[in-house]
Design goal:
Length: 250
């Protein structure tokens, strides 16, 4: 009885194999899915630090700096403030040229600056209240804005170009072009804010990589971070007490 059972089982197996012999074999394979990143990490710009405060980014992509939506008088006076900071803060081979051209500009555009200061004071006065304190506070913020060191190198290079461009310019032409020249001096700061926002957005996004049928969340590629620095000191500026001419030390 055992032999018969074995024979039947062997025969059944032979029939099954014969039935499958004419059919093609299909082997399921799994192709690897290439990684897909939903976001990339931009590097943190030089001079930045995690958690630093920058101006608000507006819907048009610009930033709410102190140099937006200014009157003609304010543009001239803000331009003077920016160049004053450059003459005081810029160092290196360009320092002497910046100081010399700034002092010359004060002489050449004396009437332009005096008219701008008078007109700007009238704008603050027209708003009522303690307008002198508001003006001093606004100028303090403006000087501290241009004194920020993260854009110092680019700002100083741009200031040297602006001073050279305006050398010997007629007062009417200088006043008319003040807004454009101010925007050029503001640009190094805006470019930094844009780069910092790109880094901050990439840091928050945390790319997702898909592998086969599974997904895993990974952190962005690590970016070297400069040691955390204290916030730069804020200076109280009284515009009326500013020295008109800048003198370089020996």
């Amino acid at each position: 009885m055992k032999r018969a059972a074995i024979s039947i089982t062997t025969a059944a197996l032979a029939v099954t194999l014969a039935g499958c012999a004419g059919k093609s074999k299909h082997v399921a394979t799994t192709q690897p899915v290439p990684p897909v990143a939903t976001a990339s990490a931009a590097p943190m710009p030089a001079g930045a630090r995690p958690g630093m405060k920058i101006p608000t980014r507006l819907s048009d992509g610009s930033y709410l700096t102190p140099n937006r939506n200014l009157s003609a008088a304010a543009s001239v006076w803000h331009l003077r403030a920016a160049l004053n900071v450059a003459a005081l803060a810029c160092r290196g081979p360009a320092q002497a040229g910046i100081v010399s051209r700034y002092n010359n500009l004060l002489t050449q555009q004396k009437s332009s600056f005096a008219g701008a200061q008078t007109a700007l004071a009238a704008e603050y006065r027209a708003a009522g209240g303690n307008w002198e304190t508001r003006e001093d506070d606004a100028m303090t913020r403006l000087y501290n804005y241009f004194s920020q060191d993260f854009a110092r190198e680019a700002f100083c290079a741009r200031a040297a170009q602006v001073l050279e461009h305006n050398e010997g310019m007629a007062p009417a032409a200088f006043t008319a072009g003040a807004g454009e020249q101010l925007a050029a001096l503001d640009r190094p700061f805006v470019e930094f804010f844009r780069a910092y926002d790109a880094w901050r957005s990439g840091e928050a996004a945390r790319p997702v990589i898909a592998v086969a049928s599974r997904t895993a969340t990974i952190a962005p590629v690590p970016v070297p971070v400069a040691p955390r620095r204290a916030e730069p000191p804020h200076l109280k500026v009284n515009m009326l007490a500013l020295q008109d001419r800048i003198v370089t030390g020996g």
